[in-house]
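Figure 2 data, in text form.
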Amino acid sequence: MRLLPLLVGFSTLLNCACPQNCTNTACLPNAKCEIRNGAEGCYCNMGFSGNGVSICEDDNECGNLTQSCGEHANCTNTEGSYYCMCVPGFKSSSNQERFITNDGTICIEVNAECHLDNVCIAANINKTLTKIRPIKEPVALLQEVYRNSVKDLSPTDIITYIEVLAESSPLLGYVNSTNSAMDALSNSTLTEFVKTVNNFVQKDTFIVWNKLSVNRRRTHLTKLMHAAEQATLRISQNFQKTTQFDANSSDVALKAFFFDSYHMKHIHPHMNVDGDYIKIFPKRKSAYDSDGNAAVAFLYYKSVGPLFSSSDNLLLESQSHDNSEEEERVISSVISVSISSNPPTLYELEKITFTLSHIKGIKDYNILTRITQLGIIISLICLAICIFTFWFFSEIQSTRTTIHKNLCCNLFLAELVFLVGINTNTNKLFCSIIAGLLHYFFLAAFAWMCIEGIHLYLIVVGVIYNKGFLHKNFYIFGYLSPAVVVGFSASLGYRYYGTTKVCWLSTENNFIWSFIGPACLIILVNLLAFGFIIYKVFRHTAGVKPGVSCYENIRSCARGALALLFLLGTTWIFGVLHVVHASVVTAYLFTVSNAFQGMFIFLFLCVLSRKIQEEYYRLFKNVPCCFGCLR
């Protein structure tokens, strides 16, 4: 009897020693401490096998289970889990690329002909809508459509999800949020919407659209664009303050405006993408005293033109615009605008203007581009020699060479930035900086051209001036006045520096006149100075050398006039003429005369100058290869 308590105690000790007490023993990373059947111990996580203390190995679900993913699917083992993917020709019943079988997902055959069967299409649409309808948040709904349409689309998918977007467009305008968060939520919704619509119209989907008949293709594409207009307009109406919103993707761009009646006369809705421009003009009213607001939404579709073609093979149509057969084609990008105002009479249209860029490159444009590049490279070399000449030859230093030096420096920097940066439009900020630098350096070059004209006028007239005072004012005018113009322009319209095509000033809202205006004024001043100088020189030459024939006198003046044309920048008048009346002749005259301006300045100021020839002779007289040509 006395041994009984000892046996009971020993038995209890044995029972306690069997489970591994995880209070004193650490569990493996893939295990956790649990109490099971009244005993505490380390147990491996789901997907792992072992005792939890010394070993927890990953289970190979794909190898341990027979057909773990079911038919028409491949199984891939991962650490602690696995996933299934349907084989080509099949898709998951949940429309998810990866799935596991315990959620009831199976692989079903893709019906390649479903888009031809109205009953099949209707069933597919209803099934998708049933799945989508419980999602009430606009952003979540769009993200769901985006995930299911981001790749491997079929004609059935395109038709189905366009119907989903069309039915969901009223819901997208519903924002259940406080006023302070509505603007941010509207921004997010518009961004997601543009991304989603882009999935259906980017060029990668053309092979899928090509499987639809012409009528079906046009019908569903029109429905998509109509749904996009409705949705973007509804979402834009949720903004709580005057807003301009931009969203861009590879083939779709959106620009939305929202404003109240007070700001209406200050807002000019427009859109400019890749040279395609649209602007709306409301009817002018005597007063904007009625309360209300308006929303305007522009949508730009870069590549949908071929989708509207009457050709049965739009893939061939999208690659060529030279088809000789008579058929309906859209050979441009598509821009749409939708407007809503409250009350409806608050914002009524008077007219709309469109400007569309050429789809194919123009032969003359390509030639002019090559001439510009060649001319600028030659001009840069010549301007560099001019800068060296005017800077380091002490014997020729004067007020005139100081002006030449500053003109050449600014023209050199302007043309260098133009050559390396005019087409670097991939980064908006960098492109804006390039445009700002071009604006400043070209205006500075024009300012010093103006100083050239003023100084020549003073010499011809014979005005006696204080050299130091004149130099100071020349520097102020040559560098400070362009800085004031650029600073003022940037403060009013910094967004207009850099366009989608080139890093230059935008033509929107006539912003380009911040350069054209000062340039035209300087050209006008220099033209007047040019005419006066030529007149005075001609009369002076005729009076001093009466024995010289009139022909020789005219030829001498013409030579000087030609030099002044390039020095004073008056050849830029060809650019003004081209803007007023565009023609091939004015385009070539402007390009040749100004791309090679640096070369002409070098010829007239250095090569043909006797004094500078002597300086070069002294510099190179001990160089055998150069001595003969410089004598």
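Caption note: The two ends are 137 Å apart (CA to CA).
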